[in-house]
Amino acid sequence: MRGTADRWVLLAYRMPRQPSTPRIAVWRKLDRLGVARLGDGLVALPADARTREQLDWIAEEITEMGGSVTLWLARPGSTAQEQAIAAGMRQARSAEYQAVITQARAAASARPGERARTAKRLQAELRRIGRRDFFPPAERDAARLAVQELSRRSAPDVTETTGDSVEAAGGEPR
Amino acid sequence: MKWATRAGVHIDRAACAWLIRRRIDAEAEFVFVDDPAQVPSGVIAFDMRGVELGHHGGDCSFETVLRRYELTDPVLWKIAEIVHEADLDDGRFDAPEAPGLDVILRGLSMTCADERVLELTGPLFDGMYEYYRRAFLLGRPPA
Question: Which end of chain A is flanked by fewer CB atoms within 10 Å, N or C?
Answer without folding.
Answer: C
